[in-house]
Specification:
Blueprint: E1 2-3, H1 4-11, H2 15-23, E2 31-32, E3 38-40, H3 42-56, H4 61-72, H5 78-110, H6 121-127
Antiparallel strand pairs: 1-3, 2-3
Helix pairs in contact: 1-3, 3-4
């Protein structure tokens, strides 16, 4: 059994995030040492690593919780996981498209900017409806 700081180091998940995951039921309440410090098992650390990887891939916490549950079930439903990943991929692609439009809009606004000018075309454009 290891303390929360070591669980954080081994999993890459911050201490506050670990506590949050506990409150949200993503990881079980840890055992406590005689000094009331949290103690984590290797399995708990594995769950934290799993959640970190899900979050690194951009999965919302609710989806990460479902994926964790599926990973721990005896009959993990691969089709459900695939469907979740496909939906997430579509959401990522939509965000990328939005960011590309944002980039184009910002580029268009800044193309007319000239250093040292008193009048700023970008600010003028932002003020118009």
């Amino acid at each position: 059994m290891i303390a929360i700081g070591e669980a954080s180091r081994q999993s890459g998940v911050g201490i506050e995030a670990i506590r949050y995951y506990e409150r949200e039921g993503l990881v079980p309440k840890p055992k406590r040492a005689s000094n009331n410090r949290r103690l984590y098992s290797e399995r708990d650390v594995g769950r934290l690593r799993f959640l970190k990887k899900c979050r690194d891939l951009g999965f919302p916490l609710a989806d990460a919780k479902v994926l964790l549950s599926l990973s721990e079930s005896r009959d993990g439903d691969c089709q459900s996981v695939k469907t979740m990943a496909e939906i997430h991929t579509a959401n990522v692609r939509a965000k990328i498209a939005e960011l590309r439009m944002l980039e184009a809009a910002l580029s268009e606004l800044t193309v007319n900017c000239s250093g040292g000018s008193v009048a700023c075309p970008m600010l003028d454009q932002l003020q118009t409806a």
